Amino acid sequence: MSTQITKEESAQQTQEKPVVPTNSVHVPGLAGARLPRTFKALQHRNYRLFWTGQLVSLTGTWMQSIAQGWLVYLLTKSALNLGIVSFSQFLPVLLFTLLGGVAADRFDRHKLVLFTQSASLVQASILALLTLTGVIEIWHIIALAFVLGTINALDTPARQSLIHELVSKEDLMNAIALNSTAFNGTRIVGPAIAGTLLGAISAWLSSHFTLDSDTASRIAVGICFALNALSYSAVIVGLLLMDRRPRQANSNHESVWRSLWAGLDYARRDKRVLALLSLMGVSSIFGFSYMTVLPLYAGEILRVGPQGYGFLMAAAGLGALSGALILASLGNSQRKGLLLSIGNFVFPVMLLVFAQSKVFPLSLIVLVGFGWGLITQNALTNTLLQTLVPGELRGRILSLYTLTFMGMLPVGSLQVGAVAERFGAPTALTLGALICLGFGLFVWWRWPHVRALP
Question: What pLDDT was estimated at residue 26?
Fold first, then answer.
């Protein structure tokens, strides 16, 4: 029997075979839908469940962040207390993240994330109950913030490591990029929803019931906490619906402390890695800590209330999202070191303008620029570290990146809260911006090879 295909048969097969555009990908289980290759990782069912649940959950997380800051402001009117609450939430990252990484390597990551997400649901529910019943006090918020930070210290390395098990190797980078997009996208939507709800619910309660404005605002805050608790169910359901394969136990019994020292020693000896990690640490302490005093700006300087507070957070998120999308479109041929240096200068300059601004529209605009500069620095630092370090040390170096970024946030929260309490929020942010700008100039002069990195 001949295996030759006639021209007519070939033409018929060409007509019958669907043509998939080169810039799209077929997504099984979505009725033959095709998505742009930007969303290629969503073709994997388990990752699609995970990513969709994260969209819902992260929106709720940002809502709780906005509502928590506003509640602390309502209860205490204190910049120092805002700093203490933020310190309590991020301190466990500094203390326990390395242990969380060990847990992620030694236990089933799927089960670990299921546990941490369930624990976060319980934490948000307790916070909502205390707030709605009117018994909430500042020490409750501080304690529950520490609990949430401890959960996050365990959850973050496990959740990031889990992505490797949800997609194929060739789609891993796309999945990581989509996670960043989800984080920054919900950073816009969550605060905007929270700010709108806080303003609308407070106004409705004040007009329909004999409640003072602070009580009405407290109830609105409690509703935001409850909605965040509900949002965790999206991740939990997605995790339960996943198709799972048994995971082999990790047979590596090397001392945790010995492995950690090897990573620290490498970071100390490689000047490029040292410069990048130093930039992250300074930016985290003196730049990203602006979030701690943002409720004061909304309430006392710009006088835009909780809704304006939400839009201020959303503006920074919009800048961060645009920065992430721009970086995703540039590819690997760009000069990442030079673009990183530009981000190092843009975000402190924008922070300087914001610190002195008393005009709400101007503040929104400069926060967009601030968000762009900060995410450009952060994302490129992460990318360059993964490129520079050898594979066997990548996890430990990235854990140092996490520590210098998130682990330094409690230090930044305390310093900005204390300075703002003594000298005012504008002075605190101005000082931090000048330090970040000065250190960026120092890196430009002292480590010129950083801006030359490919």
Answer: 54
Segment 396-400 long-range contacts (CB within 8 Å, at least 24 positions apart): 396/259, 396/260, 396/262, 396/263, 396/266, 397/263, 397/266, 397/267, 397/273, 399/97, 399/98, 399/101, 399/157, 399/263, 400/263, 400/264, 400/267, 400/277
Contact partners, residue 416, CB within 8 Å, separation at least 6: 79, 83, 286, 289, 290, 292, 293, 428, 429, 432
Cα 218 to Cα 224: distance, rounded to the nearest angstrom: 10
Instruction: Please name each of the domains of the chain with its CATH number.
Output: 44-172+179-242 (1.20.1250.20), 263-454 (1.20.1250.20)
pLDDT tens-digit map of 318-338: 888 787 777 666 644 467 778
Structure token pair of residue 326 = 């721009």
Share of the chain above pLDDT 90, in %: 22
